Write the structure tokens for this entry.
Amino acid sequence: MKTMHRRDAARHGGVMAMSLLAAAAAVTALSSVPVPVAAAARVTSLNARATAVVPTGKVPTTPVGKQLEWLLGIAPRLPLSTKEISAHFDAAFLAQVNPAELNQALESLGPPGSVTTLLGLSKVAATSLVALVQIGPSRYSVELGVDGAGLIAGLLFKPAASGVPHSWSQVDKQLTAIAPQVSFLAAKVGSNRTCSAVHSKLAGTPRPLGSMFKLFVLGALANAVHDHRISWSQKVAVTAAIKVGGSGTLQNSPDGTKLTVEQAAVKMISVSDNTAADMLLNLVGRVGVEAQVRAWSSHASLDIPFLTVKEMFALKYHDFPAMANHYLALSSSQRALYLAATVDRVPASAEQSASLPRDINSIEWFASADDLCRAFTGLAKFQAEPALRPLGTVLSTNNGGIGLSASTWPRVWFKGGSEPGVLTLGYLARDNRGQTFVVVVLTEDTSKPVQESAAVEIQALDVISGAFGLMG
């Protein structure tokens, strides 16, 4: 019955949308259960200095961006009051679509329980943008425009095509469109928490990870909590020395700001906060993280010494390529000394911007899709311990916009990452029958940035969603 209701609603909403389009504005309903905009960003950029890389779900702080953010949050308040509608739509729009018609359209396609997710943005201009959103099982392209006063002057929701593959051959075909170098793994997790590949492509090939390296930091933290060396409730402080740019918000916090280890871990994973990652890496120690990499990765030698975000930024965005080349010419033990003596002393203000890939095959964090499956399953094993239950919250706060049905997939863990030339996505999901699966996509392009438009990220998400459907 729910499926029939959803289909009927979609059909009715299409008629409503067409009638409003004839009046120069068209709307369809947002969901009754919106996803917070901050949690909707799937791939968080490692490096904000890389101008071609931005979080896909990051809404601009412009008048049109503010109206989009408002639209994504109105579902719990439907129907809207005339006063609220008048505060957001201009008079010309409301002269053609009155508040009652607007509310009817907004409610027509939002069956209770649907989830609304911001999937991406494109054609972002000063007074207009196009957003891709998912509402329950359906995707919509949202064309939004504002007038000189920042009020909504045009609004159009229209269905967006979905490219979820329905066979492994389609998965392989769609992977080739994402980037020139791609690794893929779809695996079932056994009762002993080992990964058994169902379908794969170069799953044993190590590739740059971007922010997915934070899974290894989280694993080292879990080990420390397990051994009673660190507690979830102990406090860590934000200092000027630890702050690092790129994704996250702690870099903007006042010096001396304190938060618990658990809060820092949530930020490190859910919004890929780089400052939180370096705080926790320093807390558990480089040696501790390297030990965790050895436990889960077949390519641990590539990650020694294990870089902090600040170190990676300094090597790639300060005096490049001189400092990077000097570092690469050193042995592993010499590199560690060079990091402490020289690289760690580079101030953030000395770093420069870049938009093209820089040494993504030599100065990064590395693992294969197989290694990352072991990381996800290793974290699942940790999370089964009562003292490590917070890992579930840490890894599930942001589901990466995958759009899997919550009733079918009650547990979804996510971590992704990016920098110019690198785009990575990894998920662990457990279905309502108790089966657990992992899907990982690792991409790289040494010549140009992996295209991180909404369309390309959606291609990757389609492949991942399709893989879960084929296994589940």
